[in-house]
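Here is a typical sample entry:
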Amino acid sequence: MLAAGAANYPTWLLDFSIGYKGCMWSRVPRAFLAAACAAWALPALASGQPDCSSAASSLPPRAASAAPGSEFARRIAAASGLERDALIVQEIRAGNVPPHLRHARAVTLASALPGVPRVTLCVLPDYLAVGSDDDYLLVPLGLGAALSLAGEFGFELPTRRMVDAIYRQAALHLAPRPLPAGDEMRSTAFVQWHTDIVRTQRASTPAPLDVLTAGHKKDLVLTPRLDVMPGRVAIYGWHRADGRPIQPLSLVHGARYADYSHGVRFVSTTAWVDGARRSLGDLLADERLASTVSDEGPIRLSTPLDAIASASSAP
């Protein structure tokens, strides 16, 4: 468990110490902690450790006058579907993104195949949100809107294998909290309700907002199945404490569908292979390296993703 004082340490130190069991924030004096973690982390930095510090730098700065999440929720209360997506996209493009989401975290994946190098990804610490650190709204999006923002700001959606790795390596696991099933699942009221539940869960822990956090949403994911089922959205995740997902990979919904349980987790298009920068898109298409980042083999979609997303208006 992380202590509140961890927020006072530099981002790079927190990044390295999160997964290092010798650096437990609540069990050692701060001065000793800082020295021990730095001694452990600096050699890794010097040896070409992937740098995620600029992964979210393309997001515009947040204006002081930007709406907090609760105000934005009231503004979009009556909106749904493409209308709500457009209003969310407008806010993200204007930079109304909480500061903690701009601190990407490193997630490393290893292939089961011999001789295939490890791949390190830079992922946003939580799901896409509008507002400030003190008042934010976790926002679901239809596939088209999610892909549009991802492409604009240098991100991809994760694969199923990436989602599993993010959960395993997350510093903070939040238990899934399903709401009653029904048509209201797609409403902004349910989006706000679930955000309030997640924020209450977070408030019960001393973990800083920008630690890698997982378990509380289903992910929009990339899969080769999108090529054979255009006009659908692929969702996966919502992991239980034992690491098993509530939601298996599903393409049951149309590409415009979004409900409170969906989250958009962005992954930088820049990946790291043996300390060298590589395009994540290239890795996904590579016959040899794809096994590291996808458990469905290479992802080479013959149809552009924007065409896949707009192929159907089915719910």
The first strand starts at residue 105 and ends at 109.
